[in-house]
Amino acid sequence: MRITRAAGTRRSPSRGRRGRLASRSRSKSRSRAKLKNTAISADDLPSCNRRGWVDRIVDYDTNFSYWIHEQGLQFFFYMVLRILEFSGEGLFLIPAAAAAYLLPKGKLNPEVRMFFFNLLGAFIVDLVIVTLIKNYVRRRGPMYCHVHHVTGEDRSFPSGHSTRALMVVTFFTMYLPMWRVQAANVWLPFLKRVLSNEVRILDEGVPMLESFLVSVVTWLVFSWAVATTSSRIILGRHFFFDVLVGCLVGTLESILYNNFLVIPHAVSEAVHSYISSFFGNIEEVLARFFGGASMYIQSWVTR
């Protein structure tokens, strides 16, 4: 049986208000449950919003390095870059410093010999420090470099070529007074002998020519260092930040070495004499064994 409300009767106001409040409460509860179910966690956010400043610097460094790599290969000969790369190798610089130090006493004065001996020691210290940093950081090299891609090189930071290049520059700058004396006593007399038949050098122009020679050699050393460090990025061997930190490390190593580890003149000369005599004795033994062959090293030591 259907019951209908009589005409003219109305709902109780309080009952209608309670119904509306209950309806609103149920609607709010449903909204909260919906929001709870659709909440986004921090892991669901895009990674770029959660990346730290270190990650952003690495991204900028990678993009900038790749841009230098692409642009540089268009303006520089690849063979020139490879020659610069070889000139900054430890396998070249360490033997070169050792060979210069072991030259006969008549070829170099003691101060220059001490310079090369300390440079050799600084190269060895740099080799140890850079190897430790590389093995600790283990930053992977650029993937657009075929060398790193093939060998799986993951020790890109810092650039060893950059540390050695700035070490040469810093050492040369610290020994600049010695090179001025070398220009006056060795370079200028050699230049006079070479140009004696073509150019006459007046005594008044000798100081200016000495300064010019030192400036030319300084410019060559600095240019070599800039070109060598730049070649690391252009060839895709290192990132820009690897090279920048390598330059800072090389400069700091040179300053600390010259303040705390520098080898004095007396030790340098004693070591040179001992090594020269040692190889001279070896040649003497071999000469006697082979029947009186001429002893080149022994005469080389006494020159």
From TrEMBL:
Molecular functions (GO terms): sphingosine-1-phosphate phosphatase activity
Residue ranges constituting the Phosphatidic acid phosphatase type 2/haloperoxidase domain according to the UniProt record: 115-258
Range of residues in the leader sequence: none
Ranges annotated as biased composition (Basic residues): 12-30
Biased composition regions of type Low complexity, renumbered to the chain: 1-11
Segments passing through the bilayer: 75-103, 115-133, 165-188, 208-227, 239-257
The UniProt record lists the keyword NAD: no
Pfam family, one: PAP2
The keyword DNA-binding belongs to this UniProt entry's keyword annotation: no
Keywords: Membrane, Transmembrane, Transmembrane helix
InterPro entries (alphabetical): PAP2/HPO (IPR000326), PAP2/HPO_sf (IPR036938)
Record region (Disordered): 1-30
Protein name: Phosphatidic acid phosphatase type 2/haloperoxidase domain-containing protein
Source species taxonomy: Eukaryota, Viridiplantae, Streptophyta, Embryophyta, Bryophyta
